[in-house]
Amino acid sequence: MEARPFLLLSLSVLFFMYPTNAQMPGFVSIDCGGKENFTDDIGIEWIPDDQFNYGETANIVVANETQKQYMTLRHFPADNRKYCYTLNVLTRTRYLVRTTFLYGNFDNNNVYPKFDLSLGATHWSTIVISDVNTIEVRELIFLTSFPTISVCLSNATTGKPFVSTLELRPFNGSIYYTDYENQFFLSTSARINFGADSDAPVRYPDDPFDRIWESDSLKKANYLVDVAAGTKKISTIMPIDVNRNERPPQKVMQTAVVGTSGVLTYRLNLDGFPGFGWACTYFAEIEDLSPSETRKFRLVLPGAPDITKAAVNIQENAQGKDRLYEPGMPNISLPFILSFQFQKTSDSSRGPLLSAMEINKYLRINDGSLDGTVISNLVSHYSAADWAQEGGDPCLPVPWSWVQCNSDPRPRIVSIFLSRKNLTGNVPLELTKLTGLVELLLDGNSLTGPIPDFAGCGNLKIIHLEDNQLSGELPSSLADLHDLKELYLQNNSLSGTVPISLLKKNLILNYSGNINLHKGGNPRSHMKLIIGSSVGAAMLLIAIIASYLFMHKGAEKNYKEEKLPPPLPVHGLVSSLGDVATEASHFFAFSEIEDATKNFERKIGSGGFGVVYYGKMKDGKEIAVKVLTSNSYQGKREFSNEVTLLSRIHHRNLVQFLGCCQEEGKNILVYEYMHNGTLKEHLYGPLTRERSISWLKRLEIAEDAAKGIEYLHTGCVPTIIHRDLKSSNILLDKHMRAKVSDFGLSKLAVDGAAHVSSVVRGTVGYLDPEYYASQQLTDKSDVYSFGVILLELISGQEAISNESFGVNCRNIVQWAKTHIESGDIQGIIDPLLRNEFEIQSVWKIAEKAMMCVQSHGNMRPSMVEVLKEVQDAILIERGAEVRREDNSGDMSRGSIHTSINIGSTDPGVAEPLVSLDESIVHPR
After folding, report:
1. Catalytic residue set
2. Helix count (H) and strand count (E) of the chain?
3. What is the tens place of the pLDDT at every residue in 19-77?
4. CA 833 to CA 827: how far, in whole Å?
5. Do 836 and 747 form a contact (C-beta atoms < 8 A)?
6. What CATH class is the domain 208-361?
7. Which residues contact 787 (CB under 8 A, 6 or more apart)?
8. 861-884 pLDDT per residue, tens
9. Is the pTM of this model over 0.90?
10. Which fold has domain 6-183?
11. Which of 115, 277, 704, 916 is the most core-located residue (most Cβ within 10 A)?
């Protein structure tokens, strides 16, 4: 009889699925949130997850979506738990696991969710929903090591985690075999069917493994753009021999594109890259060539000239017409933006041909916590309990709600919190095998039997076993726990005497409520609290109070002994500042300001706020003195606002506030002096004539500024929204490091509020249109402004211009969007950069800028995400800079070809040794 695969839904109960003859054995297709079994139009049988006891289901209606499995979903609370589906698998078998996510505004909030997806202990992907009607798909190819796998959702940062479908597809034979499969998963980034006759993907039953081959006709942002002139689609109805390693479906191989002008060119985004990956191209000669005709071509990748040496001859390589040839590259370093070209050789009469391409990224497998097996045995005793069903690894990527783990690469459990969980039976012996355990809370249960020997848990500091039904004597081994500080045993049925060795320890010991347990001997002890009577609680309270007073007194003593410097003097601001006076760093006398600026001799800046002057204090410290021009209520309020904010924020990427002055009817703010002026001056001001800043330096400036803004958004409580970010408010010090300035318009976000109602203020060109329309200010308004700054960094253009952007366009966002969406990145790049940049890093910033200036704030990334993208672009650019320097040297490159069709032994660490042309010559 055929074995029946089954699915264990963690946080739920076990239930079975029965495969039918209509699909491949081993297929698992879960309609999350569904209520009934059904078979779809392509013959896939779907089952509901209706026995899942956690989360809630929702029905959605999405335009043009008719597939039943996408009309429901299951969503979960945005809490600190992870929610896992655990599926049974065959060990040492390769599978494809696929998850899909269709938001459909199921919560009626239009708050696009963002959360993490993991496979076991390995972080798989961060799901970022950016559109109500778009299905997000994630696929992973892996070799199983255990009889189950867990697919988990966790760490929601916006909205609620949810899932639409979960699918499992087994492979057979050597499909997707790599030398690294015990250390790495393969995360699918691209699987493309070239020459497709429609936008519809090719999948089951055309592909018996139900891989999804996307059509090259599909229109989406930066997907297969820069297509060469003369690219033509061709097809055949003849059968194709596809019996090779990866066995692409025949339907995919019956179509192709050819470069009738001698070249095929494409560019596409590779999700998850830059990084190391597995790539494969698929060719089959499906045109009839005369005996005198040839088709020979080379693969060309920018920045990798060595790959062009070997040529592909499909019929020769495949040993016949209508046969598959699939050269593979099992370990190759690829960028985020992949530009590639197939170019015919000089002795070829036909242009290049391409049928399909597949690219997967290596995702390092996390081996998981060291206590995984032990804790799995523990929860198996309580399989029906709610707390025992969280699934996945107990520590990674987030810990279970009742455990705490250390931060080691392979963590150990340090705390168990199982108070009042209705535990029965003996204390589980598995707990005594958790060698890293520091804190154990089992109080308030119905545990019986003796206290086990915890000698193997040498780090234990706190043990709570009170309010159970434990019996027997106290094991003397408890005294051998050198770090034990608290032992709570009250209200059990323990008997005998408390071991003298335990009484001698310096710890809090409470054994009241055990009528047959008595104190033994009268040992001398050091600072311990023994509670064995009805007055125990009162004594404990006294001890805690005494401890607090002792520590408080000690803290005062330490403060005096360390001779901490006194705070800077605050001379008392005038009453218009109110309570601000107590927070200001320093109050300058007007005479000090006059002396430092030589009676305001040198003006270094001006604006609607007033005038900025250069100054130098008597100790040599250089300062910038901002004199606010407005004495109106509004001007005083902005002055008060900036003093309030700047007095409480300190970050290396925020201009340092030194103090203020409010005398002689003037409102004056004093800052550190920034020697290199504003970013605006360097991009399109007078300083550009002296020396244009490089692309790498622009990225570093963006990183500095992003760090400052990210601090305002996440490091301040409550959050601070700048509200007037622009290139003239990003200042550069003597080392060209950037700092954000000018907080006169900034607002404090109210804790728990999604927005701040505010009269619209800001600068045209940088102003968030959603904020302008709604007067609802959020931190995403700053993100919009920063997106404009990123576009300025790329283009060297002002945010608003009457001349630079063509007819009927004054706005950099509209201008840049037209170019970027059409794939014309070169059309917006600053000519002053002189092509001294890596195009992939420019694309990365351009696309993130477009995300920042989305019309709706909930579609924009957070500053944390923006900062990460900028840092990734810096890594790309620095790597390219090193390569450019290497290429300018007199280096021998022959060593590149030392290995054929094998990469580095660790694709996650070292550069691959493989050259792409040799991989083409020697197929796997």
Report:
1. 724
2. 15, 50
3. 334 567 889 999 999 999 999 999 999 999 988 878 999 999 998 889 999 999 999 99
4. 13
5. no
6. mainly beta
7. 813, 848, 849, 850, 851, 852, 853, 860
8. 999 999 999 999 998 888 877 766
9. no
10. Jelly Rolls (2.60.120)
11. 277
